[in-house]
Write a structure and sequence with these properties.
Helix content: 40-55%
Number of domains: 2
Structural class: alpha/beta
Order of helices and strands: HHEHEHEHEHEHEEEHEHHHHHH
Number of strands: 9
Mean pLDDT: 85
Strand order of the largest sheet: 2-5-8-1-9
CATH topology of the largest domain: Rossmann fold
């Protein structure tokens, strides 16, 4: 059984730890106004596994995945030239961006994308529309999706324009304190999938995790239609946090407010509290504040400022 075969079968609820990564994906699902999630970290920290498991849990299928070597035609679509040459018929070829409409577009090693593909994604992500023109034939399709990217920061940074399209940023760490539990869970899942492949009935442990995934989807779908109140006090705190971190522009405080509102909805609360801001401040602002140390740098100084502002 290949690693890829196991990968898509792992229930989201079976994955141990990585709570910030899980929360960011949940928030992007609950709050359509959040344009994307960037997960950075070394290999083996379950980034791809978790993204695919989450997509299976909430969309019922693996995410549309954009390979880093994808051609422009593959990304935006167009017309099948072979059909035109052989049958003199215009036949559309649906692109990956259109396939992802209403769901998730996943890019592994997003920092290795070619610049012209990045530019296409930026244009479509901003407009929500794909326009293709070829030989007098025009195509215009909706393409509104949640952009999820994973990357290893050792392999290079993102262009600022693309980084800006990810509203939430999570620096994924090795779960040192839960390492033993993670190992036990991995072996438990391996044994369960091997039993299934031998034709045995699905182990109860897998059924339990799948049931939890179903409950999670119901919870998140309910949260999507909730709109917890954000009073002026909370909005002012969003602005103070952005100003305190020297965040340029106004997107930072908007993302912070939306993320906090999404978290309140997930928690089943009718209004946003300071605790919601505290929980999402790092992932909403860490890649937007002015730092001399590079993308995503965040430490004790920033945590202290958040505590001073929120009290």
């Amino acid at each position: 059984m290949s690693a890829e075969t196991i990968l898509w079968r792992i229930p989201f609820s079976a994955i141990v730890g990585q709570e910030d990564m899980k929360l960011a994906l949940k928030l992007a699902y609950v709050q359509p106004g959040l344009s994307g999630v960037l997960l950075t970290g070394h290999r083996g920290t379950a980034k791809s596994t978790l993204v695919r498991a989450f997509a299976m849990a909430v969309y019922g299928q693996l995410p549309v995945t954009l390979p880093i070597n994808a051609t422009e035609d593959r990304v935006v679509g167009g017309w099948k030239i072979d059909e035109l040459a052989e049958h003199q018929q215009w036949k559309e070829q649906v692109g990956l961006l259109e396939k992802a409409n209403g769901e998730m577009l996943y890019i592994d090693e997003v920092n290795l994308l070619e610049d012209h593909i990045v530019d296409i994604i930026l244009d479509v992500a901003a407009s929500g529309v794909i326009e293709v023109q070829h030989e007098g034939q025009d195509k215009r399709r909706d393409a509104r999706f949640t952009l999820v990217g994973t990357m290893n920061p050792e392999e290079g940074h993102l262009r600022p324009q693309l980084l800006d399209r990810f509203d939430l940023y999570v620096d994924v760490k090795t779960e040192t304190e839960q390492r033993s539990e993670i190992l036990r869970r991995m072996l438990e899942l391996d044994a369960a999938f091997q039993a299934i492949d031998r034709g045995e009935s699905t182990p109860q442990t897998i059924k339990d995790f799948e049931s939890k995934d179903e409950e999670l989807k119901k919870q998140l779908d309910e949260a999507r239609i909730q709109h917890p109140k954000i009073d002026d006090t909370i909005l002012d705190l969003c602005v103070k946090l952005a100003e305190g971190l020297n965040v340029t522009g106004h997107r930072g405080e908007r993302v912070l407010a939306l993320a906090a509102q999404g978290l309140a909805a997930i928690d089943g609360k009718g209004e946003v509290k300071k605790e919601h801001l505290r929980r999402v401040a790092r992932m909403a602002l860490r890649h937007r504040y002015d730092s001399d140390k590079g993308q995503g740098d965040w430490g004790g100084t920033q945590d202290k400022l958040v505590e001073e502002v929120l009290g």
